[in-house]
């Protein structure tokens, strides 16, 4: 009985929120009902997710996200706060964003709530603990679970802006040599890196089981040299706009934030 109720609730919600969107596909593909059913659930979950983030659930969700990201994922939490600043710095270029990092479902949902921004995510770690909305995002391909030691499953220049948080701290130089150029490869307008600052963030023992190794935090001098080694240049225009907007909006980053140009 509860199951039937659940289905009724779901279809009512879909009727309320997404009837127009769904009706075209349900008429043209009435034969492929199992696929359609999965699609319905996925779209429903997406709408619910958007609803919970835009409406009254918002505050609770943000709090939850931050408490989950404390410590281990601190730069991903900072990135979430920095989204309005990034919008100012990148303007229209923020229309098609790829985020790579832990807790990407939360980041992608927040980006979706911004006007005229579409977002995709790559989760470098497992999503077994993820909630149902996150699993739905994975099911419909908005979020992919992928090991970033290997090339990303996207064509060159698939996204306007690519943002990566935390994950690079867990890669050795050998992998960074390949991963960083690959992130630049899929971007048209730029690559933004949020990475831990030595002395400000601490590596935790619990990280090793999840990420395979403890974070190795590198300083600005190290990163700048490394970007030179892999032929990535600072995006000075974006850096400048970001810093101006950050000051205006009283945004203070504890993490290091780098803005790089894509390859031409
Ligand atoms: C990374 O690449 C640079 C230059 O391309 C090279 O000098 C360096 O040895 C490489 N590092 C590792 C660990 O493979
Ligand atoms: C940055 O880190 C390197 C080691 O990777 C160290 O030799 C250097 O002194 C550090 N620079 C600053 C300014 O802390």
What do you see in this structure?
With 264 residues, the protein is of the alpha/beta class. It folds into 2 domains: 2-58, no CATH class; 70-260, Rossmann fold (3-Layer(aba) Sandwich). The protein is 52% helix and 13% strand. Strands 3-2-1-4-5-6 form a 6-stranded mixed β-sheet. Helix 6 (132-139) links the parallel strand 2 (118-123) and strand 3. Residues 1-32 and 54-72 have low confidence and may be disordered.
Helices, strands, pairings?
Elements: H1 2-28, H2 33-54, H3 58-69, H4 74-90, E1 96-100, H5 104-112, E2 118-123, H6 132-139, E3 143-145, E4 159-165, H7 173-185, E5 187-195, H8 205-211, H9 220-229, H10 236-248, E6 256-260
Parallel strand pairs: 1-2, 1-4, 2-3, 4-5
Antiparallel strand pairs: 5-6
One 2-acetamido-2-deoxy-beta-D-glucopyranose binds next to helix 7.
């Amino acid at each position: 009985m509860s199951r039937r109720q659940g289905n009724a609730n779901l279809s009512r919600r879909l009727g309320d929120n997404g009837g127009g969107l769904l009706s075209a596909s349900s008429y043209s593909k009435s034969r492929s009902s199992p696929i359609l059913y999965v699609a319905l659930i996925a779209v429903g979950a997406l709408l619910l997710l958007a609803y919970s983030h835009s409406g009254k659930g918002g505050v609770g969700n943000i709090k939850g996200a931050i408490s989950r990201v404390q410590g281990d994922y601190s730069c991903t939490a900072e990135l979430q706060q920095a989204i309005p600043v990034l919008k100012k710095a990148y303007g229209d270029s923020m229309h098609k964003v790829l985020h790579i990092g832990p807790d990407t479902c939360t980041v992608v949902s927040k980006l979706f709530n911004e006007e005229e921004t579409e977002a995709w995510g790559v989760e470098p770690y497992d999503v077994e603990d993820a909630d149902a909305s996150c699993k739905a995002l994975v099911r419909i391909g908005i979020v992919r679970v992928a090991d970033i030691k290997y090339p990303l499953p996207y064509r060159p220049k698939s996204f306007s802006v690519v943002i990566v948080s935390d994950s690079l701290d867990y890669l050795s130089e050998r992998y960074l040599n390949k991963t960083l150029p690959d992130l630049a490869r899929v971007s048209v307008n730029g690559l933004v890196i949020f990475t831990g600052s030595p002395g400000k963030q601490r590596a935790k023992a619990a990280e090793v089981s999840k990420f395979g190794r403890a974070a190795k935090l590198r300083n600005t001098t190290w990163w700048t040299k490394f970007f030179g080694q892999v032929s990535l240049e600072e995006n000075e225009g974006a850096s400048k706009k970001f810093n101006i907007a950050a000051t205006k909006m009283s945004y203070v980053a504890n993490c290091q934030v780098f803005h790089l140009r894509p390859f031409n």
